[in-house]
């Protein structure tokens, strides 16, 4: 009897462009600047992206341009949370210390602050033009295109 094996990765073939953005701006401020310079209408979604049982959450802004069949997503790559530090009992100071833990959505790109995901069905978005407009924004340090196929944790970008 013949044995057939199906690979699950074969079914997911979503074509999208991914742009990494380095900026120290708050997420809402970056969304405002992208809206202004790229003529977008990004809005914050009601729920954030949560991973590992609410251990980390990442803000997401979205705009579905139905006239051009393009879905724009601005996703934060960094989540900082306060946590109690481990300390031994009987210390001089009884107050527990707080430490700041940093989590990344895409662990291969720990230095990237945000990702701009452009899902276009008919591929009418000029990635080079978008990159040049983003790099013209003075508050953005740098931006560059990322190949989504080279990312090991690309499943985190499915939402």
TrEMBL record:
Quote the InterPro entries the UniProt record gives: IPExxxVDY_fam
NCBIfam families registered for this protein in UniProt: IPExxxVDY
* Protein name per its UniProtKB record: IPExxxVDY family protein
């Amino acid at each position: 009897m013949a044995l057939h094996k199906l690979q699950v990765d074969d079914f997911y073939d979503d074509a999208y462009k991914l742009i990494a953005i380095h900026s120290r701006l708050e997420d809402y401020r970056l969304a405002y600047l992208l809206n202004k310079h790229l003529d977008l209408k990004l809005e914050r979604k009601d729920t954030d992206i949560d991973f590992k049982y609410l251990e980390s959450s990442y803000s997401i802004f979205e705009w579905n341009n139905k006239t051009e069949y393009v879905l724009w997503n601005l996703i934060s790559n960094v989540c900082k949370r306060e946590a109690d530090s481990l300390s031994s009992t009987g210390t001089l100071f009884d107050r527990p210390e707080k430490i700041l833990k940093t989590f990344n959505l895409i662990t291969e790109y720990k230095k990237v602050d945000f990702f701009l995901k452009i899902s276009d069905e008919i591929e009418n978005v000029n990635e080079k033009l978008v990159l040049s407009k983003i790099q013209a924004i003075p508050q953005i340090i740098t931006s560059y295109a990322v190949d989504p196929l080279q990312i090991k944790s690309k499943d985190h970008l499915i939402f």
